[in-house]
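Teaching assistant here, posting this on the class forum so everyone can see the example we discussed in section. The complex has two components, and the goal was to see what a joint structure prediction looks like when all of them are supplied at once.
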Amino acid sequence: MAANHDDKGNANGQAAPREPRKLDRRDVLKGLSTVPALGLFGYAWKTQSDYQQARAEEVAASPQGPADLQVINVALLGAGAQGQVLTDSMLRLTGLRFRAVCDIWTEYNQKRVVNSLKRFKHEPNGYEDYREMLDKEKELDAVIIATPDFWHAQHTIDCLKAGKHVYCEKEMSSTLEGARSMVAAQRETGKLLQIGHQRRSNPRYLHCYTKILQEAKMLGRIITVYGQWNRGVTPDLGAPERYVIPDARLKQYGFKDMHQFRNWRWYKGKGGGPIVDLGSHQIDIYGWFLGANPSGVMASGGNLYYDRNTHEWYDTVLAVFDYDTPLGPAKGYYSTQTTNGSQGYFENFMGDQGTLLISESEVNYAGQLYRDPNAPAWDEWVQKGYVSAPKEQETKPKSESGAIADVRESVAPDQHTVPVTLRDPYHQPHLQNFFDAVRGKATLNCPAEEAYQTAVAVLKVNEAIEAKTRLAFNPEDFKA
Amino acid sequence: MEAAQLSRSAMIAIVFLRIVIGWHFLYEGIAKLTSPSWSAVGYMRASRGPFSALFKSIANNPQMLDNANLITMYGLTIVGVLLMLGLFTRLAALGGIAFILLFYLCNPPFVGYFYSIPTEGAYLIVNKNLVELSALAVILLTRSGLAAGLDRIVHALLSGRARLATPVRV
């Protein structure tokens, strides 16, 4: 590349008038001299893509799977944010073949998930109407439902009656009638129905339940539970104009407009608001760990922040549950707010011998256990590996700020941790449990009857807020 | 700075600089295009500085966000290809500068701003965006596409045609 190329008419355009020159060989060679760099880029990109594809295929579902593994034909019904989360987890499981993706947002959600599945060598057909999907996809074994809550009952019942096993996201339904009819359909068809309370299959929660609470009884008698889910302010979801669903289709599927379609969780009759979206997961754990359903609930809540026209449910809720556990009465406090995400979400079980602070979010809450100084030693459980050895306390306890503890304060309890880690996406073990059950190799960790009891407790909170009084549960209420 | 005044080795260095910046732009664009879920929303929502209101308003408007995502994905890709080929080099350099300026202004490392997003280095006012932007300014001014790049062919063809069309001087 010559520094002096005035003969070609240099950049200045200041050259004196010259004779016109034709494009010569030198021009062509120098002009094309950097094209090989683009070729090199193409080669590097191809190599990188091949590597990524190979890695993806390693962890993705092999259509055949191990020789003795029954391949399950799966459809996804509802390809929104939660449908994508479930799909990402399912792509890490072996022995699944995606046959169909159904979503009324054909322009965006459906296309996105179908394309992402194709990258993993699946060939799913896209559908707008789930009935058409059930009619045409005769080979389906199971349907994963991640549609808005108010559609769950009908979608689940129709899929079960079409002979498919169903994994349905929580909340089971936006109404108890809907949830009951789902349980009835499951019983009638004999098909499997797993509800998406995924902590029920999380190895950390299972370890806490089976080892720490049931076997070792390390907390003693649990008297109080406190849990929260704090989430920061988030703007409403929208859609670019080119992806907006035509009004006629929205109305056909029960939505008044695109805003309601995108933000259905905030609308009465469509979802249940944050107490149902978020609280349901944790209140489910209250009942599971306490071994009891609540006997009553008081609640206070309100729409303190968001526009009530577009956010019909409460953005801030505090509920107090009464439980009559096998060991005695207990209180369950639960708070959710959607205006500040500090301290995130966790559940804190406090017994007369110890405390368990656990969260699905292990990065924020590693799963701490505190032994009350007056409780029997936990050495046996440390030796068995149920909990870690206690964290050594400093001889001169001092806070980060330099404040010194007064001698009259309680002796700090020993701090242990839950020695089990989930290294997979949160939903993966629960989906694995479902597919294992489909293959007849496991029982469901959250069958419909179990999830129904949680739905009864959670949906009552919104009623209690409106009633402004304590609402009692009858044990019969929890039987579907 | 004129291409004609540069030594041969200096021009080789500038062409190399243009190619590696083009490579970077091209891969940034392609990586975003091939990711099913990429969006600038997180980067814009974390915006600080004098233009943060603008970036946040784009992040919160689905239509504008969609446009911004498309422009970013395709823009980076096109600028990358043009820089690597040395085609319309000055226009590509200008486009690249505009993109990087937006990235820089969205989350500037100004005094007193503390980001929780991890970065791979430590920056005060000058960060790698600004360095790449400055390098593009060099490319903009030196017109290396004429020395090595398709601009040379285009220029030769166009200048030849222009001369043919030049009216006869009296």
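For the discussion questions: Residues 3-114+122-165 of chain B form one domain. The CA atoms of residues 14 and 138 of chain B lie 8 Å apart. Think about how each of these relates to the inputs above.
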